[in-house]
Design goal:
- With 170 residues, the chain is mainly alpha-helical.
- It is built from six helices and two strands, in the order αααααββα.
- A two-stranded antiparallel sheet has the order 1-2.
- The radius of gyration is 17 Å and the shape is globular.
Length: 170
């Protein structure tokens, strides 16, 4: 592993630790639902950072793939949780009923399931190729349909969150 990859891994690991602290701190504070939703969001991004850091630190290909699958829990849930935080912050509680939240989380759960079963269908990563023959080589992930569906869904939620937030400010 090169020095710059070690540094990136360390930065991601430090970020993960900070996010885990923020998650527990917010959960402890919990004077409103905003703290709870923010705690879930930071926990999601914690998993994303931790999985990515551990992928950098892993030597075997199977371990790298395992950790990138773990990071996909955060990758798939970060945007919907961010949107939920925005809805709570903008005081749109009517959209935060369990049914609505459940509908927001259906696609992320499907994406996570696709990531963990990628070996069967390749919908997230059709091919995963090592950069070199060295044991700790970086991997190149080609992106499949599931990846693009997740990206599209995430961007839609981010844009909707910006619109909701902007309307609450005005």
């Amino acid at each position: 592993m090169s020095a710059e990859h070690s540094i990136l891994g360390i930065i991601l690991l430090i970020s993960a630790i900070i996010l885990l602290y923020l998650s527990f701190y917010s959960l402890k504070k919990r004077s409103s639902n905003l703290y709870f939703y923010f705690s879930l969001l930071t926990l999601s991004v914690f998993l994303w950072c931790l999985g990515s850091a551990m992928e950098f630190f892993s030597v075997q290909m199977w371990a790298k793939i395992f950790w990138i699958k773990i990071s996909y829990i955060g990758v798939a849930t970060a945007a919907p949780l961010w949107f939920i935080v925005i809805l709570e912050y903008a005081q749109h509680e009517k959209y935060l009923k369990p049914g609505y939240i459940g509908m927001l989380m259906v696609l992320p759960l499907v994406i996570i399931l696709l990531a963990f079963t990628n070996d069967l269908h390749g919908l997230i990563w059709p091919t995963i190729t090592p950069v070199s023959s060295a044991a700790s080589s970086l991997l190149i992930y080609t992106h499949g349909l599931g990846f693009w569906v997740n990206i599209t869904y995430s961007f839609i939620l981010i844009i909707l969150g910006l619109i909701v937030d902007r309307k609450s400010v005005v």
